[in-house]
Amino acid sequence: MAMLESIVVFTLLLLMLILIIILILFAFKPWRFFSSLFSFPSRSRSIKVEDVERPLVSDDVNHSQDQSNDLTRNYDLEGACYQSEALLRSPRNKGLVHKQRLPSASPHQGDSLVLEISDPSEDLLVGQTLKHPLATEHLIEALKLGRPENQNENSIQEFVPKVISDQRSCLSLEVVSGPSRGIRCSVQSTNPSRLPLTLGRVSPSDLLLKDAEVSGKHAMITWNSNKLKWELVDMGSLNGTLLNSQPINHPDSGSRQWGHPTELASGDTITLGTTSNIQVRILSQNECMVPFGVGMISDPMSLRRGGKKLPMEDVCYYQWPLPGIDQFGVFGICDGHGGVEAAKSASKILPEMLATILSDSVIRERVLSQHDASDVLKDAFLRAEASMNNYYEGCTATVLLVWANADENFYAQCANVGDSACLMNVGGKQIKMTEDHKISSYSERLRMEGMGEPLRDGETRLCGLNLARMLGDKFVKQQDSRFSSEPFISESVHINQTSGAFALLASDGFWDVVTAKKAIQLVAQREKELMAESEKENLAEKIANVLLNEARTQRTKDNTSIIFLDFDSTSRRISCKVDDP
């Protein structure tokens, strides 16, 4: 009996041991290493030819020569610099993989070939910024392996991506997480007075982060005019700097020594400390050409309400020019409620709809000749509302359409739903460009009375909302027909070069604590101070900061976004376009 029990116990222990071994094998998958070991010498590279799979291109030199005739004349290297995109595409999408369409030795070949080139000898990690010279070296080597014997070696240079030497570049930074989430900053490579750009916890840092883990002077961004690249360097911070989760600070963080400069690309994420993440956008000259001053800034005001963090639901944006429409540009603010998704959707769809409508030459010429874009703006809002699928989220939308005539004078016209307002000052005259669509506003009460469904005395909300007009919120619009997405359209405003005009768009977080009269006084006062100090550069950005600081001083309790346009001819410059977060 004792022997039987011993056998049973031994069997159970053996089964448990086998089970543990199986679990360990499934957890660590050691066969991966054997598989890669035996398959690596013959690993091939994927080729796409008009979406049809062809034999793979081997690493073997002789095999590469056999494939040389399949190479096409077009290339599309992910991570390379393009004149039209100006480093906007990030090389980190594929880790260590660069896809390259290589030139064809035969002009009759119409197929396209994509090589996935990776070099295991390079000590690089997924997410690390890949240097474009590395990709170029791979490309040249691939071409050398695949070209015919009689091909001139100098012809390889024809296919190597080149940076346009006179290219301007705009760098935009947005804090996407941490205590200072929502703060933005932008700088141009052609503006040395604002370079280098410093990131830190104390003034005079250009990007001021109220984060205890961020050093007083934490990191710095410079423009390398030789490489035509933006570079990030850690300034000996205590908690280090990460670029796409990889440290770039000095290995000995306690020594307070600076790290080595590292190239930035659009789409990168900079991490200061552990919580403050900063999104990088790099825009080209074509995207940065604006014929007047533009200042844009936003703050979630996350430290208000007794330290309660507010979610950032504002989205401010602009595009100049609209795609394919050189004379027109759009500037807008969307303030979301119930979430930020509706605001993101509207900020993307509205410019697309305006560009689509104005691409019709007949409509465009009518706007230019009649100096009126009312129908265009109304149609864009109706199309945007129809395209949005936000049933339980909504947003305000304030859009200022600006266009130039042949005499280089400007016209501006505004459309809005909700309570994000726009005002203009032209020749000292204040012009209100929007209408307040709160439930409590007189105009909305009159509209509802005209529908035969008046509000009750003291009623200031419908279905829990204090707005009567908005984009999105499809569910409540189905419940109550008094909600509307029809925009208010202002009259068009003519702006000549000597009128000293400006426009101010802001979400209700600003207008809740600052009156229109006070805003105009602040603008006039700050303009006078800056002109006296001969500080004419970036005038619009500085004024936008003054206005935001006033909202902070008045302790606004809502997200605050501001766009300031300075049409004064003495301050026209190149500025940066900044999209939604």
From TrEMBL:
Q: Which UniProt keywords apply?
A: Hydrolase, Magnesium, Manganese, Membrane, Metal-binding, Protein phosphatase, Transmembrane, Transmembrane helix
- Domain named PPM-type phosphatase: which ranges? 293-567
Tell me which InterPro entries the record gives.
FHA_dom, PP2C, PP2C_BS, PPM-type-like_dom_sf, PPM-type_phosphatase-like_dom, SMAD_FHA_dom_sf
Q: What class of enzyme is it?
A: hydrolase
Cofactor(s) listed in the protein's UniProt record = Mn(2+); Mg(2+)
Question: Transmembrane residues, as ranges?
Answer: 6-28
Q: What is its EC number?
A: 3.1.3.16
Ranges for domain FHA: 197-248
- Alphabetical list of SMART domains matching this protein: FHA, PP2C_SIG, PP2Cc
> GO molecular function: any one?
protein serine/threonine phosphatase activity
**What Pfam families has UniProt attached to this entry?**
FHA, PP2C
Identify this protein by name: protein-serine/threonine phosphatase
Tell me the classification of the organism that encodes this protein.
Eukaryota, Viridiplantae, Streptophyta, Embryophyta, Tracheophyta
